[in-house]
Amino acid sequence: MHSVVVGVTPGQPPVVVLHAAAFAARFQTDLVCAHVNPGRFVTAEAADGSVSTSSIDPDFGDEREGEFDAELAAALGEILAPTGAAWRPLALAGDVARALGHLADTLDASMIVVGAHEHSVSGSIQEFFNRSIGVQLAHQQSRPVVIIPARAPGVRSYLPGKE
Asked: 57 - beta bridge partners?
């Protein structure tokens, strides 16, 4: 099985995950919903792509930050339930593009899916960083990188959780 890896983050439109689930269905594989916390670094890694992490800031010792956000996982479960997609959440750490690329390499993923953000003042900053992530992935990967537009007609909901 060559999983489809999708980068997820709070505030992201569900359409990104739904497109990733459609790709996973077409490839008859599972979907790995990966959230990367850039405020943490990897201390250990398992063969399934899961990682143990520590905070970059030694004064910030909240170990819950190393876990996949429960509210985000619940929202993903609701969004993906009608698709019937086999999926799992995965918390990663470090540089977003490197973490997603490394996970894709570890899993020998068929593709990496990321979302672009809408155009607004804050969206422009997010778009700059997301474009950078997409470009970095495209230059570093030997597998397809798919960037899904943030806004589809009629989409008004976003994934919950801590941004």
From this structure: none
